Amino acid sequence: MAAEHKLYTAEEKLLLIDLVGKHKILEDKRTDIISLSKKKKTWEDVCNAYNEEANVTKRTVQQLKKCWVNIKSKRKKELAHETRERLKTGGGPPPDNTTEFPELDLVVPHLSHNVGFLFDNDALQVNNSQLSTEAVSVVEANPEDLPQQHEADMTGNLDDSSEVPATTSCRNKQKFSPRPLPRKTVIETELKSRLNRLQCQINYDEELHSLRKEEIKYTIDLAKERLENERKAEERRIISFEREETRKQQAFEAEERRKEEIHRSKMSLLGKN
Asked: Is the pTM of this model over 0.85?
């Protein structure tokens, strides 16, 4: 008997992903009677294969279906969060795109909506060779190399103010910071990625449309064959009925002749007497 309210282990989830990955019909979007019947039978096979494994808790088909939906839902949330982090501005490290089950992206690739780059839109890091000649870097300033007049002006400003002005930050040691890519470039990259995903979806829809056309043709041919069989069966019933009626008529006529002969025999005997 299947256990109730017992959490799935990572090994059990990985086993379920592997079993579902062997049956592409389970992720088919078609909802016709034939497809639903195949899915039901396939889920029963997956459940039997799952329960035959050692060191797993016995589960029902409904429990495995629910676990599969939860696994995909969690991955969708991870991908949505990753996309939001990619589209944020303000720099910072790239978002962590690791997942607990990398195999899931191979089983259900339509879940993934990766934009194809690893950094924020406004803070993509590039190599020094990719920087334009207009890039400005902040370097350490040596006070001894500054003009005397400029140093005197700075000293005077410091005497008159109790706070350090913001311009003095140039004396701090700062490393070279590469310029982020322009927002236009990031938007174009995002647009290309979305166009690629759209083209993949169009190809998928065309293939699905072709399969549905084949299914309709198969259904029509099956209906024609069924009608032809019913027509032939009806013809056989009519022929059988006509034969039965002919036999009954012949039997009735034979009975009438027999009765007439008996009557004649009786009348003949009475005439002789």
From this structure: no
